[in-house]
Amino acid sequence: MKIRKTFIQSEEVKVFIYENKKEESFVVAVPFAEWSAFFTYEEAGEELLERLHLSLSRTKLDEETAKALAHRIYQWTREM
What we know:
Elements: E1 2-8, E2 11-20, E3 25-30, E4 35-40, H1 45-57, H2 63-79
Antiparallel strand pairs: 1-2, 2-3, 3-4
Organism: Bacillus thermotolerans (Quasibacillus thermotolerans)
Protein name: YueH family protein
Pfam family, one: YueH
């Protein structure tokens, strides 16, 4: 499991990223936003980015923060 740190609303927040190489999938959790998501290696590109953004938008995060965090999560999981 990887733990990344980012700033949300002027507060340092931890993002937990679990990669299951055998099943080719990720589980990502952001306890600050009470949010988590599961997706596979096959899901990629704009479709996954949009799904993450929409899901994060339903939390206590504002629209701009949700979009930025979705983009960071997407980048972090593609680096792994």
